[in-house]
Amino acid sequence: xxxxxxxxxxxxxxxxxxxxxxxxxxxxxxxxxxxxxxxxxxxxxxxxxxxxxxxxxxxxxxxxxxxxxxxxxxxxxxxxxxxxxxxxxxxxxxxxxxxxxxxxxxxxxxxxxxxxxxxxxxxxxxxxxxxxxxxxxxxxxxxxxxxxxxxxxxxxxxxxx
Length: 161
Fold this sequence. Notes:
Layout: H1 2-24, E1 55-57, H2 59-67, E2 72-75, H3 79-84, E3 86-87, E4 91-92, H4 102-105, E5 113-117, H5 125-136, E6 141-145, H6 148-154, E7 159-160
Parallel strand pairs: 1-6, 2-4, 2-5, 5-6
Antiparallel strand pairs: 3-7
């Protein structure tokens, strides 16, 4: 009986707070369903001087940045996945544990170009890590290699196994 009363109070308080939020706080950007975010895709040959948000790059651009050593690649996957194979020369900052990698992040030059990647497709870790580095830590040039490691391997590019 005691637990039922507590459950009832929690449900009632949640309902009241939800109704208050719905009717009294006007925020057009608030949605219950996450809206799809569309990031602009840029070409490595004509990168903007100043980025206002992280930008997407395709495989050709990623490879050009890799071969010219114009960017540092960051693998946003877990350490176990990273150790099983990653873009040669990339560093590992798992998005799910980025707090544990502060010692790595602190030693990065915020003015260089960084490319985050993960497993491509439905993997959002590279986007989330890019947003964290750009918005929270104020890195200047963050690019997202959306196709990720599977496409890199499919093209026969350098990996560390």
